[in-house]
Amino acid sequence: MSGQIGLTVYSADAVSRMTTAQLRDSLSYFSPDVVAVARPQHERQLRQALSSETPTVVTERTQRTVQRLYSSASVDLVRVAGVDSLGELVALEGDGVSVSGETYVLSDLLSVDLDLVNLETRLDGREAYEAAVPDDLSGSYTHLTTEANPGYRNDWGSLAVQGAMPGANERQGQTAPGIAHLRLRADGVVCTRTRSPEQFGLRALEQVGETRAQTLREAGFRSREAVAAADLTDLRELTGFGRETARTVIESATATVEGTVRRYGDEGFPGADPVFIDIETDGLNPTMIWLIGALDASTDEYRSFLAREEPAAALEAFLSWLQHTVGSRPVVAYNGRSFDFPVIEEQLAEHCPQYLDVWDDIWTFDPYYWATTRDQALLPGRTNKLGDVAAALGWDDAGTGLTGAAVARLFQRWQANPCEATELDWERHERYCEDDVRALAYVYDALAEASRTHRAGTDTSATGSDTTQGQLSDF
Amino acid sequence: MSEYTPTTDEVLDPGTLRESYPDYEGQLQHTQTLPAREADHVPASSVLPARLADALGADLYSHQGEALELLTDGDDVTVATSTASGKTWIYTLYFALLKQRNPDARGIFLYPTKALSADQEAAINDLFERLGVDATAETYDGDTPSDRRPLIRDRADVVISNFAGINVYLNSHAKWRSLFRDCELLVLDESHTYTGIHGMHVAWTLRRLRRLLDYYGADPQVVCSTATIGNPADHSRQITGSESAVVDEDGSPRGRREIAFWQPRVTDEEAGALTDDGLLPAMRQGANGETAELAAHLGLHGVQTLAFTRSRQGTEIAAKQAVNAAREHPDGGYLDVDPYHAGLSKEKRRSIEYALKQGDTDIVFTTNALELGIDIGSVDATVLSGYPGTRQSFWQQVGRAGRGTSTALSALVPRGDAIDQYILDNPEYLLADDVEDAVVDLDNDAVYARHVLCASAERPLTRADAEWFGPEDRLRRAVEMWRDAGQMTGDLDRGAQYDGPPRPQADISMYASTDEQYSVRCTNGDIDMEPLGRDRVYREYHPGALTLYDGQQYEVQEVVEDVPRPYVELRAVSTREYTRTLSDKQIRDIESQRRIDLGGGFVLHAGMGTVDVHYHSFKRIDIDTGQPVGPPQATGLEPLSLRTQLTWIRLPERLLDRVLGEIPDDSMLDPPEESPLGDQEWTLAGGLHGAEHGMIKLAPLTLRLDNSDMGGLSTLAHPETHSPVWFIHDAVEGGVGFAHSIYDNFEAVAAKTRERVDSCDCGRDEGCPACLMSSQCGNENEPLHRPATTAILDAVLDRL
């Protein structure tokens, strides 16, 4: 089993809100193998932005036969427009579509209907769809539907259904941004990232909303590269750009284009060699930490603490190790302030309170919080997520494509029914975790090494020092 | 204002009124006097340890003693005594007692509003101090600064909050573990407010809270404090999930209370020749205007007055009217008058509360936002513009006047409406013992399911959780639904866990099943206004609507919805016009769940259906002439759809012949030109429409319902029942059990409606606001026919 397909799906709202430059930027960001849009008229707009031979698919267009969109080793992506053509899947299996990996069938034929009043969820279209899927298929199939959000995944009897369209189920209280990128893997796992149009083109720059983006375009600055090369005085002449804004916009463009960190201050930035960590849990409100990766920067020793079943085993081993290792050095986790640190504390309180005091004494540091909320540095990258920042700084990620949510889900599946079929490839997950920890160390080092830039007109010590930012979960 | 301040007795003495009230024409129809009540005391030492009793230095009222005794025995207690009877003391004293036994003991006290929390925090801490108890109570809600939060969570002995807050905080319960572990007392103050939809959310949030308290090893006692309701024990059981001993023998003293029934003056010029009996309510001034005049009169005589109106707009308009009335009054002068409602910014509200307490304002016009126990000191009088819909609410509002043993004055100014006129004619109805029940429908799956989802995010759900969310079969179905919807993983055997976007608690609106909040902006100035719910936006803030806010008129420019945070854009204007919104309604996809076949083609159903309400257009109306300005204009808004509970009665076609047979030809209604219906059909439609209106309007006489939470529809031929039919439905997604309770009590409601409609003094075939007409009708009260209504109800009652 090998290969994977990158499918980028644009909602109709997203395409109609994006400029060609933004579309181009988003395509270079996702580098999809296949691009899907909902409406025929959007395909033309997309084609203008797509220079390559990348295949496109229009999900609302009718089509009589199965459309083969892409193959990558043992992964295939096909599209059906009506249940009648599902029968052709048998013929495809004889015609080169892999039966050893996974075949993804994209359609708008299945939609998820949540009925709170009757306490049931229905998959509309299921009966006809199921009846039309041939019984004698040998391969493994996942059915992608544009009538459900990208995060949606459920097995309806024999049908593995995965959502693909941002904003498809907004009435279920889920609001999804406009563009989804799905990594379709050979093991049937789909990893999704969703982004909004505002994260591309000039809009991706700090302090640039639609109005300033428009002003920049009209003044001839059509790309971030152009803005990065701009003179401060040029930008200051534009409506809506004060000295400080102009400077921030240029710095933000430079950071992104050059893939460097712009650092404003060093307030509270630890000096000593830290211990970098990352945790894997069973969900967002975790009941268990099952994997902790730790990298000791002083020795470059990497440690992995794994617990498959015993809720506290990984944590206990980690704390026992940390207690003797860390001393007065900091423990660093990306977004740790919102997730890793409180989760560790909660889990300690629940499972091994004897370590609470040890943990309380440890110096924790969150470079994400430090850079963004405390406003100490400008990070490159389309988003401030670790993967994006590390990649923008030149980190070559191992390309696992697994998101935290997907990993948590895999773990939950195994936990609910531990058996061979659900068993995780533990070593592989340990490698993924290590990769993330090393990416964090890379970003941290970039922050540590970045030269300080004095921000225009502001005294750096005044920014953020008295800002108290509550936890995201505070009300 | 005159230097001499008369007593209330003098101000409202009919003789004085004739002399001092401008153009007095006998509005004061009668008064009821409730005698003073003596206090019944018990020594504090009989129920409290000596140290606390000594420190308290006062006797307790008998009900306080009884409640403390029950609590000491380990019971959960519901205290249902009057406003200002010292209910706060009961749970605060008991907490002090717990704290003496266990210095680590902590408590969670929950209030229905933030305003009340702030108010009670001070009262509780004062009592702790008086008792010499080393304990503090501190409020933790959306307004608490983030640097105080960890301190309160970890240290405050009593944490004061509200259910909207608890709903959200439960997501990060680990941060609360020390409070949850040591919690020995849980207090729900003003628990009678937890009814209907809101009550359901509270009940399920409380189960989520108790489940986590249990997880951390706490099993606190629960105290509910409530106004008088018909079913205190049952209501507390629904809300809290446990049995509770009821204390309702009030031992507090009360001053003499005068209740005046004040019929608005006649304004219709043609009414001059008519006797009192011949006057129609429609010929009188509206209740709000009359309330404004009466309040102005009281205010000018130094009587500080709190006046209750039924809507936010009502408070704004009445405040203006009262200022004008004071200016035109023979004793003419200036009055400080403020509107008060939940749409006002917090600062504005706090300043009005303070002004009331300090006696710095003469009159405050308020919605029921000031019905609850916020300490606003003692106002001298309350005036109610219209009957508030329930006796429970009526007594709460009346109880706001004259705290302590001073004589208190209250006046009810009836609207021209069925219930109000009934009460004016039958004031003994108010004094009857049976106060309404508080309804909480735990069977509502739409609300239940959302809380199950939140609970699964807080801790994985297992079969043991059937204790809180059972029966197990229901919980299993909810888990399966969420799993199929991709928002949960696992099952009850292994643990079902939330798997959707972060913080599902944010999707819960404590005040309705679904409720998107729209912020308010102003294009030509600043406006500081609380966000509006979607229904209110469509009904009152559609494009083109004119609205008053804090004394300023605004016109709605735009409703922007296709953005993550929807908003309404207003422009400050100044016109002599107001707007009236027109709507129409369809009911489709009906599904019968229960039915009673009454024979002869009569079938009564309870079930579900989809209600589409379309606020399609509006009229601008001249304030001075009451005449429309120009033709109706479109709002440009889509219909609002909701899937909800219905009750309907299907009628046989041939019933129509029988009904027509009882109606003389000259009584038939003339259909308007554009109607395809003939005289007979139009008249019959008026009968069905009248039966629907009448039952909705009169249902609160039998059941605890707010008829604004219900709606109806009648038609001679519904495409799904293929028959004449009328529907009564709940006005929120999923339903709250109101329409279904009419199904369960159909005969009683129908009989009372028939009696009221038939005996209405109006004597008009088209009825009047006292019998058939409704201010909520989207059809401008057409057609309505009283004899046809009576005949149809007779035919139905014959079958029951």
TrEMBL record, chain A:
Residues 275-447 form the YprB ribonuclease H-like domain. This is YprB ribonuclease H-like domain-containing protein. It comes from Halovenus carboxidivorans. Gene3D superfamilies: 5' to 3' exonuclease, C-terminal subdomain (1.10.150.20), Ribonuclease H-like superfamily/Ribonuclease H (3.30.420.10). Residues 455-475 are annotated as: Disordered. Signal peptide: none annotated. One of its GO terms (molecular function) is nucleotide binding. Residues 458-468 have a biased composition (Low complexity). InterPro entries: DNA_repair_Rad51/TF_NusA_a-hlx, RNaseH-like_sf, RNaseH_sf, YprB_RNase_H-like_dom.
TrEMBL record, chain B:
Residues 68-247 form the Helicase ATP-binding domain. Pfam families: DEAD, Helicase_C, MZB, WHD_HRQ1. Keywords: ATP-binding, Nucleotide-binding. InterPro entries: DEAD/DEAH_box_helicase_dom, Helicase_ATP-bd, Helicase_C-like, HRQ1_WHD, MZB, P-loop_NTPase. Residues 293-446 form the Helicase C-terminal domain. One of its GO terms (molecular function) is 3'-5' DNA helicase activity. GO terms for biological process: interstrand cross-link repair; nucleotide-excision repair. This is DUF1998 domain-containing protein. It comes from Halovenus carboxidivorans.
